[in-house]
């Protein structure tokens, strides 16, 4: 594939989505390649329908294994509909969450086992992985405080999980970053959003200079 695939990861409240709003215009201004910003779960019509089922706070009885499989199903559809076509066309794909989220949230947070969730996702993705993952790291207490500040109620079932859940999620992310240092680069998410975006831009242009006019 001729394009560039970058994922962005982090615990709830890390500020990934806000940072991406700052980052996308910079990439567009410095590249002749089209930039596609997408998200998971979701990103395409069918995957968005699955997202609604996964995150609906009314689905309190959803089994952890069901949750993991639904995330993988949404990801497979997202790849089919959005990511692979864009990469074939030489575009720069930025995905707000990808496989690492499932390993951290379902594998560690829901305690299904990181190896088991990774195996489910190898099938779902058929090996399609980002060339770079920017992991925006924040302590769980900071992320949850941000969520509570900006929203009166948690947005979804995962944000409603307890402190121990979010501690396991962050630990799993940090372990992945240590294990896959060639792919995953950590940025301190406690910094101002613009600083995080600037650091992400510096990492991207250094890694992939052929895609950008510097």
UniProtKB/TrEMBL annotation:
Spell out the family assignment given in the record's similarity comment: Belongs to the thymidylate kinase family.
Q: Which NCBIfam families match?
A: DTMP_kinase (TIGR00041)
Q: Which residues bind ATP?
A: 10-17
Gene Ontology cellular-component annotations? cytosol
Q: Does the keyword Kinase apply?
A: yes
| BP-aspect Gene Ontology terms | dTDP biosynthetic process; dTTP biosynthetic process; dUDP biosynthetic process
Query: Where would I find the Thymidylate kinase-like domain in this sequence?
Result: 8-199
Q: Which UniProt keywords apply?
A: ATP-binding, Kinase, Nucleotide biosynthesis, Nucleotide-binding, Transferase
The record's PROSITE patterns line, in alphabetical order, gives: THYMIDYLATE_KINASE (PS01331)
Reactions the enzyme catalyzes: dTMP + ATP = dTDP + ADP
Pfam families documented for this protein: Thymidylate_kin (PF02223)
What HAMAP family does its record include?
Thymidylate_kinase
- Protein name as it appears in the record: Thymidylate kinase
Q: What is its EC number?
A: 2.7.4.9
Coiled-coil annotation reads: none
* InterPro entries found in the cross-reference section: P-loop_NTPase, Thymidylate_kin-like_dom, Thymidylate_kin_CS, Thymidylate_kinase
What GO annotations for molecular function exist for this entry?
ATP binding; dTMP kinase activity
Role this protein plays: Phosphorylation of dTMP to form dTDP in both de novo and salvage pathways of dTTP synthesis.
